[in-house]
Amino acid sequence: MAKKALITGITGQDGAYLAKFLLDKGYKVFGTFRRSSTPNFWRLQATEVFEKVTLIPADMADMASLLEAITVSDPDEIYNLAAQSYVGASFDQPLLTSEIDGSGTTRILEIIRHLKKDIKLYQASTSELFGTVQETPQTEKTPFMPNSPYAVAKLAAFHNMRIYREAYNIFACNGILFNHESPLRGLDFVTRKITNSVARIKLGLQNELVLGNTSAKRDWGYAPEYVEAMWMMLQQDKPNDLVCATGETHSVLEFVNEAFSHVNLNPEDYVRTDEMLIRPKDVNLLLGDPTKLKESLGWKPRVTFKELVGIMVKADVERWERCLKGEIFPWDAPSFPHNMDIVKRHKKS
Ligand code: NAP
Ligand code: G4F
Question: Which position among 126, 142, 191, 246 bears the catalytic label?
């Protein structure tokens, strides 16, 4: 019989790629989505899985809907990807972020504990836990020093995963995911903000790109490869927590330069910084060491930094070209506000 998987947050970047990956492996895939006044299924359409998954409405803040989702799907594996995933917004909505990203995970653990079922649980944990890094590169043993309400909420989830594993023998794994990007990345995040803007600038639709802290460094990988690691972690004999990263770090400025080079434009003509976009507290350097994941499960990153930037710029240029030709297709950018008003609230005082 086909294995069953439940993905919370199936409408997000990772949810869409993971759904495709699991369907290709022969799984029956269920996914939770949030009811909203306008549908948000464009990533599931882009990965051509929309007609193949079973969608269940649920909110991480609502125990009843999560219980319903788990009961209805009766999964062998749960991938908990749903989150308020934007670090910047967690400074504006710290309590909501804690409710969704922290308590939301505990709700799932409690449901599994009460149902007494052999459900394997993957938690999308994060390199943000390292915050002000205590050593470089960061490994499974590096102490955590979170720098945002988002990271604190994810830290609570991380520890509850460990506690429920040890106390109740639940197969619960934390993937300590470093940044991973793709053409399905949300426009809030710096990589996609850059590639979408570069595409618009190239096509004469925009004339500047305004950024915050361009010296921040991240270990950026390619999202479709990271969802493979999620699945691998649940196929182990014993549950554990593993770092998923490329082992390379690059600054935001390097990403900008690489992106503009793909369209043969000089970034200095278009990029400016605005201190309103600098977070009250930022994470300046992330560099992961994926040795344990490589050695135990054979996972390794394949797409390089340069290739990743190229994939994202190419996708955004193609989308805007199709749009300019009058084609209508599901995609996030046309309805995204390009003025900066929505991101000015969490200013450093
Ligand atoms: P994403 O694109 O922002 O997707 C987040 C998903 O969570 C979306 O489906 C979203 O639904 C859903 N969601 C948000 N609030 C919810 C709520 N209250 N109840 C139910 N669902 C809710 O994020 P992603 O990049 O795919 O990341 C997946 C997970 O990995 C997240 O937990 C993130 O924190 C974690 N992570 C990501 C990275 C990375 O670099 N991408 C690195 C480390 C960890 P809507 O579509 O309705 O908004
Ligand atoms: O793209 P970002 O918003 O991603 P961030 O904060 O690293 O978080 C992402 O990765 C985490 C894993 O490490 C995930 F847990 C989390 O869910 C999310 O997926 O920002 C990257 C860097 C930051 O230092 C930020 O200050 O880019 C800097 N930055 C500079 N200008 C900007 C901008 N970030 C955004 N979003 N927008 C800017 O204009």
Answer: 126
